[in-house]
Amino acid sequence: MPRPDTLSAAHSSARRDALQALGRTALAWALGSLFGPAAAQGPVLQRWPGGGYPFTLGVASGEPLPGSVVLWTRLLPNPRDLQPALPPQPIEVRWELAEDARFSRGLRSGVTLALPEHAHSVHVEVAGLKPGWRYHYRFIAGGHASEVGRTLTAPAPDADVQRLRLALASCQHYEHGRYAVHREIAQQDIDAVLFVGDYIYEKSNAHWLHRRHLHPLPATLDEYRAHHASYKLDADLRAAHAAHPWILNLDDHDVQNDYTGDLPGVAGEPVAGFLARRARAYKAYFEHLPVSPRRAPRGPHFAIHQQLAWGRLADIWVLDTRQFRSPRACHDPSRPDGRPLLTRQPGFDGPEGLPHAPDWLYCDQVATRGAQTMLGSAQERWLAAGLARSERRWKLLAQTTQISPSGVATPWGRVIYSDAWDGYPAARERLLQAIAEPCVPGVVALGGDVHRSVAANLRLDPNDTASPIIASEFCCSSVTTRGLSELQAMLVRRSNPDTLHLRSDERGYALLDIGPREMACTFRATASPVRADARLHTQARFVVDARRPGPQRD
Length: 554
Prior knowledge:
Layout: H1 4-35, E1 59-65, E2 68-74, E3 91-98, E4 108-114, E5 121-126, E6 134-141, E7 144-145, E8 149-152, E9 164-169, H2 180-187, E10 192-196, H3 221-231, H4 235-243, E11 245-249, H5 271-287, E12 306-310, E13 314-318, E14 340-342, H6 377-389, E15 394-398, E16 408-410, E17 413-417, H7 425-436, E18 443-447, E19 453-459, E20 469-475, H8 486-495, E21 499-503, E22 506-514, E23 518-527, E24 537-545, E25 548-553
Helix pairs in contact: 2-4, 3-5, 6-7
């Protein structure tokens, strides 16, 4: 007969195992309820058949708040295969976070589940941390430990912060070059990466091919997942994620080129079919990036816009320019993607002796459609109220493209691009009025998308030098995606006096150094195409005085 202490130990062990199993089951149910109905699941696994190193996509962190940060990884032992080999069961993952790389000071840890219906991705929002503090983190699963990532929390809202350093980046078409930009970003002493869209590209361009996507262009959920996974096989991109927390925004190529609200960017695709595609793309995006589970997409809807603060120094608004925007002016279902438009009334033939402009260029709707919006009315009101209320020194608008004018003057009128803010002048005017009418100081718009480095003045009446400057704008070049020709860039510069700097012949990012008195923007660049051994140089540097809007060349 067993001794009483042996029975007690056995009962305690059984009870502990039962509670742990119950905890894992409850966690699986809770995570499943966040993202929709859970798939049929077997028992929780601590190991899986065949083993293999599961952290091939690296680790990442994001959304730094005062006292919390999101940690991410995805278990994928065979990343080059379209179909992952992990069994369709939850897998137990341990996470650890500490104040040093040896995990000896201030260790925090826990166990979470990588669920098959979410591609065995892991999102852990660790709360109760010290504000404005640097941490190290890692994951452990199947007997393997991940690499160690570095992250930090935002300062307390009332902290007297003296500095914020950001890397502003966007547009990293895998096929257009290597990620030398991310190699340098990983090595920089910065607080966060602000990535403003086009993390993946859902299309190819054989003309600029330097390396091939590893899988078919995505349409199904498995293909979007494989597409994201193949991007993260780049060691420099993984290094940039492991080195810094990321603040993320989405743009069109993360789903489909030039989609507009609920309208597809491809001719002939039904709206219902496009929304199903958008749901798949949003889900894969979430599964592969450090986004809080609180903002997880629900079907074709994603809570992209958010506000973050950096002590008393800066407010950051992440703005959604895709889900709520109106159809473009002169929208043509047979050509639903963005296109050049001539903003003069049809019938104006231009100067005598010149050939007529093509009829398909003419559009008389751009200046007359005042109800058009890029952000949606609710987001416009939310931003306007936040700007008017903010007492922080700097107000940063992290949106996806260029707000200042970029059209080109021609003898027949001004040619603009319909997918840009130029195609939504009434929406731009409302945005600028939200800055000008309450006289909000320290506003700086940050964008990407246009594949060129831009420093520009923002005026209530764009390009009217008699109109006062009310804010500043910086757009980063692309990480890899090709830009305008030099002739096109020259025409844009000549046609827009608000543009102080524009270079589209080099790839790169913008390094932002923000202090109480001034904000500096250094454009770091390298020649295109981007080589694996490329080194970046300083293309230009501008500063903005906190007391006076408008970039000044340094």
